[in-house]
Design goal:
With about 280 residues, this protein is an all-alpha fold. The protein has one domain: MetI-like fold (Orthogonal Bundle), CATH 1.10.3720. It is about 75% helix and about 0% strand. Helix 2 runs antiparallel to helix 3. It is elongated, with a radius of gyration of 22 Å. The N and C termini lie close together (about 5 Å).
Length: about 280
């Protein structure tokens, strides 16, 4: 058991280090960039040097500056999309969990239909309808993930409401809002927080996919996905332009997955008791 505890503790630590590093890059980009992201004075496809640590792209723009802006976009999309998914998903999930049978079945059917569509496909349809922009991408990704959060919330709420202590609380005259605050939310948040962490990484990956397809943040923004798309034509002559944003994306997904694994052990009381 100690080995399991140690592994999960290290998972959380390593995940936090990775995400903290990306966050630090994002914060620095808010106040300082080595070059403006649309500056083309660096020379086309210049190799790494002291003036351009990772070189330049096919238009002469500094890759470090564009990667820093990409980190900003990835984190802002992740936080915003998870916030939207959490608000919409928790609301629908709670409503389905407490609703009468006919309403519960109707909401469940709606959630099943939404889940049947891949999040990226649904996001592509919404962005295509609203127009390509960072706001549209955030809204589309958050709405696409909300069905997953809602479905999970409904299952967790149903499980908690079937417990004997809920029946005892109702028998003692406790109101439903108080039951939600005192019993439902404390019992469902350990699982939900892990899901939120996982959805954060998926949101960043979805935004990169949309930007790669030209449906994300428009120029001069520099999403990691758009950097990959731009580097596609010059990958043989300047591989660093494709490798760097790809590594950042991989680091983001691995980091949030490691954090989710560590949070699962910390937040879930059943896992704590099994140690």
């Amino acid at each position: 058991m100690n080995q399991v505890k140690s592994r999960r503790s290290w998972s959380l630590i390593v995940g936090l280090v990775i995400i903290s590093t990306i966050t630090l890059v994002t914060l620095i980009s808010l106040v300082w960039l080595p070059y403006p992201i649309d500056n083309t004075d660096g020379g086309r496809l210049s190799p790494p040097s002291w003036s351009h640590l990772l070189g330049t792209d096919k238009l002469g723009r500094d890759l470090v500056a564009r990667l820093m802006v990409g980190a900003r976009i990835a984190l802002s999309v992740g936080f915003s999309a998870v916030l939207i998914a959490g608000i919409v998903g928790l609301t629908l999930g709670m409503a389905a969990g407490f609703a009468q049978r006919w309403l519960d079945e109707s909401l469940s059917a709606l959630l099943d239909i939404l889940i049947a569509f891949p999040t990226l496909l649904l996001a592509m349809l919404i962005v295509a309808a609203r127009g390509s922009s960072l706001t549209s991408a955030i809204f589309a990704i958050g709405l696409g993930m909300s069905a997953i959060i809602a479905r999970l919330t409904r299952l967790l709420v149903k499980r908690v409401l079937a417990k004997d202590f809920i029946t005892a609380s109702r028998a003692s005259g406790t109101s439903w809002p108080r039951i939600i605050v005192l019993h439902v939310l404390p019992n469902i948040w350990p699982t939900l927080i892990v899901s939120f962490a996982l959805q954060f990484g998926l949101a960043g990956l979805a935004e990169a996919s949309l930007s790669y397809l030209g449906l994300g943040a428009p120029p001069p923004n520099a999403s990691w996905g758009s950097l990959l798309q731009e580097a596609q034509a010059t990958v043989m002559t300047s591989p660093i332009a494709a490798i760097a944003p790809g590594l950042f994306l991989v680091a983001l997904v691995i980091g949030v997955n490691l954090i989710a694994d560590g949070l699962r052990e910390i937040a879930d009381p059943t896992l704590r008791r099994s140690r």
